[in-house]
Amino acid sequence: MRRPNHSVDRTRSLRVHETHRPPAPVLRYIDQVAGSEPDIEFRYSQGVLTKFDVDVAHVADSSLDVLLGTRDAKGFQRLLATLVFTRNLRRHRIALVRTVFGGTEPEAGHVAERVARRVLDRATRAFITLDDSIVTPNPSRTTRIPHASFSERYIGYPRSEQIEGRILCLSPGYLPSGTRQLLGVVRVTSTPGVTLRLAGRASRALEPHVRSAIARHASTVSARLEQLSDGAQVQEISAAELVAVPHSDSPEERQLVYLALSLDRPVITPRTPAMAALAREVGAGWVHLTDGPITAKDIDVALTAGRSGKRTSHPDLHGRDLRETTAAYAAVFRAASYDRLR
What HEC string does 111-122 produce? Predict the structure, then answer.
């Protein structure tokens, strides 16, 4: 797996198409991609690539359907869209860069869909992963760029006093599916004074359960059921003793893990290769891993460990400076663009 090559010629300006909305006040994955590099112009579109005057098209694999225009497309329809897309890349000499958040798709489905995946993999100039646990179709064209820390981004934001025993489950969008289970878990913990705080929007299916839990257990459950700004997230996280992330598979869920660590709050989350590697990297006591859904015992163990005094004062987020991360993405874009012209 490669490291970013910062030695590529910076004298020529570069146009990068991003399959994402532009950076905005609410933190998203794009904020660690699009930096202030003077030689790179970013364009943003949450649709099919139609303007071919760019040098690089960058997309996270979770948004591939958006770029290809193949949402819900199957079989030969998907293959046709992929062939048209890759032909346009070749014709206009555009380098495709993909960020892979999970493992590669299994060799399943219609034979045409398998062919489409292989065609797209061959057309990809560079793959980016956030950690070494992720396998891509071509390791020799893969660069690891660690997920950024957001410590500097939130300097000066108002923070809350930490509330002992508060377990926080939050989302800048909709609360995760594991939230309902947590409503029952916190009531059977052995640690005195444990409370659950929910912050984020609740789906129609979840909201009645949250309202009912608050009505029956107001001393142990509280909620802020609304869309959260970055400032609101900082306040909610800083008030917690432990941040619960029921799933860490999507970019948004991983972002919550790093946001909590950036604000010096430990996280509890189910074990995955990526989270296990992160737990080793940041130091003992910061990422508590569970073998399955988060249980009352898991929360008790995490709180006891955190109060033991053995945890370092800050998680080790060395090498994850936001500016370094955006510079690493820029280096990959430059290298991919250079390769396409050879």
Answer: HHHHHHHHHHHH
Q: What is the chain's mean pLDDT, rounded?
A: 90
Q: How confident is the model at residue 56, as a pLDDT?
A: 97
Whole-number Cα distances in Å, 217 to 50, 109, 184, 294:
54, 47, 10, 20
Q: Output 158 or 104, whichever has higher pLDDT.
A: 158
What are the tokens at 171?
């989302």
Q: What type of residue is 194?
A: V
d(CA 107, CA 121): 13
One-letter identity of residue 227? Q
Statement: residue 194 has pLDDT above 70: yes
Q: What global pTM score does this model have?
A: 0.86
User: Where on the phi/psi map is residue 318: left (φ > 0), alpha (ψ -120 to 50), or beta?
Assistant: beta
Strands (E), the chain: 14-18, 40-44, 56-60, 95-100, 124-129, 142-144, 166-174, 195-201, 221-224, 242-244, 267-270, 287-290
Give the closest residue to 261 by CA, choosing from 324, 326, 301, 317: 317
Per-residue model confidence as pLDDT tens digits over 130-170: 988 888 999 999 999 999 998 888 889 999 999 999 999 99
pLDDT higher than 70, residue 318: yes
Closest Cα to residue 306, out of 167, 157, 154? 167
DSSP letter assigned to residue 183: H
